[in-house]
Every structure is written in structure tokens, then in C-alpha cells.
Write a structure and sequence with these properties.
The complex is a heterodimer of chains A (110) and B (77). Chain A is α+β, with helices and mostly antiparallel strands and 110 residues long. Chain A is built from 5 helices and 4 strands. The mean pLDDT of chain A is 93. Chain B has a single domain (5-74), classed as GMP Synthetase, Chain A, domain 3 (2-Layer Sandwich), CATH 3.30.300.90. Chain B is globular and about 35 Å long. The chains are: A alpha+beta (110), B alpha+beta (77).
Chain lengths: 110, 77
């Protein structure tokens, strides 16, 4: 429990933007994860992804970590932002872009 | 194990008696829903807290029995 929390914390802090998802950005394994990737790509921000299907411990642990029952989960500068519904709402309202600018997130490398 | 939309609605209403709840069965398979929940109880909560409150009302069914619930929360005008 504690070990997996430490592991998650390390992943969360390993990049400005981290997406816990099912599958990979190129091959998402779930519609919600796919939507989350599409939003980040539209915003043009650089991000790391973590495939929870490759790590059962993290797959369960991440749900407890932020008291959030579903995947994907987006973290910006170590802070939990939300799942794909919140990402979509924020993106449509222009808030997700603002958050990335506010937090000085680096753009994706071309 | 799919869940009936009436059960989802009842669980949300039990936690938020003032709420208006609109549930749409997205795929017609009783397993992929969208829900819009409007309640004054959300007034002082940010989006994450609003969604967490709805998930709490669903008592752990979210992410288990209920695979897909596209959730929108709002405060009444």
C-alpha cells in the first residue's frame, strides 16, 4: 500500500503532465483514455503516460491515491486534475489550456 | 453486471434529494451511461469534489459494476 503510493508519487512527479491510462497514446485500450490523449494532443502539451494495464498494483493504487474510481486520470505538476469528463469540460471551457499556461507546462516537442 | 438507470438515479437522489438527474443510456446495453446531475449541494465544490460526491453516492459501484458513466455536474441557475 505505502510502497505503491511512493511509486505513484514518483510517477506523478516525473513530468509536468502525467496521464494514467489504459494502453498507450498510440494504442489506447479504452474510449475514455483515448479521449484524454486526444485532448492533450489538441492542447499541444508534452506529457508522459503510464499504462495501468501493465501494472495491476498501480491500476488499483491510483484509484486510492486520489480517491477517484476510474481511469484515465490526469496530473499536472503533481496535482490531480480529473478524469476524462472533467478534462473535456475544462477543455471546452478553455480552462485546461489556461491551467497548462498558468502552471508553465512545456509544449510538446515537434 | 449492468446496472439499471433507475437504480443509478435512485442512488444519486438518495444522496442529493434536491438534484435533477438526467440519465442517458449511451449504447442501449445498460452498461454505458451519461448522467447530468444538477444540485445546489455542488455550490461550494470544485469539479473534482462534485464528481467525487456523485461517485460516493454510487457507493463503490463506479469503476466496478458501472464501467462507463460519463458524468456532468452543475449547480442550478
Amino acid at each position: 500500500m505505502t510502497d505503491v503510493n511512493e511509486k505513484i508519487k514518483t510517477v506523478v512527479n516525473s513530468n509536468d503532465v502525467v496521464l494514467f491510462m489504459k494502453g498507450t497514446p498510440l494504442f489506447p485500450q479504452c474510449g475514455f483514455s483515448s479521449r484524454a490523449v486526444a485532448i492533450l494532443e489538441h492542447l499541444g502539451v508534452g506529457f508522459d503516460s503510464f499504462d495501468v494495464l501493465q501494472d495491476m498494483e498501480v491500476r488499483q493504487g491510483i484509484k486510492d491515491y486520489s480517491d477517484w474510481p476510474t481511469i484515465p486520470q490526469l496530473y499536472v505538476k503533481g496535482e490531480f486534475v480529473g478524469g476524462s469528463d472533467i478534462m473535456m469540460e475544462m477543455y471546452e471551457a478553455g480552462e485546461l489550456g489556461e491551467l497548462m499556461a498558468e502552471k508553465k507546462v512545456a509544449p510538446a516537442e515537434a | 453486471m449492468p446496472m439499471a438507470s433507475a437504480d443509478i438515479e435512485a442512488m444519486i437522489l438518495a444522496a442529493f434529494p434536491d438534484a435533477s438527474v438526467e440519465i442517458t443510456d449511451l449504447a442501449g446495453d445498460g452498461d454505458h451511461y451519461a448522467a447530468k446531475v444538477t444540485s445546489a449541494a455542488f455550490a461550494d465544490m470544485n469539479r473534482v469534489k462534485q464528481h467525487q460526491a456523485v461517485y460516493a453516492a454510487l457507493k463503490g459501484k463506479m469503476g466496478g459494476e458501472l464501467h462507463a458513466l460519463q458524468l456532468t455536474t452543475a449547480v442550478p441557475d
